[in-house]
Write a structure and sequence with these properties.
This protein has 103 residues and is mostly helical. The chain contains four helices and no strands. It has one domain. The chain is 80% helix and 0% strand.
Length: 103
């Protein structure tokens, strides 16, 4: 049963990053990327506020800022790992305590 959850968590993370990469590169392919050599050359996005805001949101999602898709996928992975580690350590300590009481 836990393997099903693990696969769904991994699937969510992979799909979210594929979506974010696709969105970022789709925006970049709209513009002439050969003209962008340094970071100061990105002034093209200053006049187009929709693309600038979209790129900022994509980068925020990559970094995992809370209201974005990247945060959701990372937090689900962390919740799943804490649940599994808690279950593992609880069973480990419970087994040791039962073994001590049985002797």
């Amino acid at each position: 049963m836990s393997h099903e959850y693990l696969l769904s968590v991994m699937y969510l993370n992979i799909v979210s990053y594929i979506y974010l990469n696709f969105a970022f590169f789709a925006i970049l392919f709209i513009f002439d990327t050969k003209a962008i050599v340094t970071l100061s050359d990105i002034k093209v996005f200053g006049n187009l506020q929709f693309f600038a805001v979209t790129i900022i949101l994509i980068f925020m999602s990559f970094s995992g800022v809370p209201p974005t898709l990247g945060f959701v996928s990372k937090s689900i992975i962390i919740i799943f790992l804490f649940y599994k580690l808690y279950k593992f350590f609880f069973n480990l300590f419970l087994y040791k305590k039962l073994k001590v009481f049985s002797n």
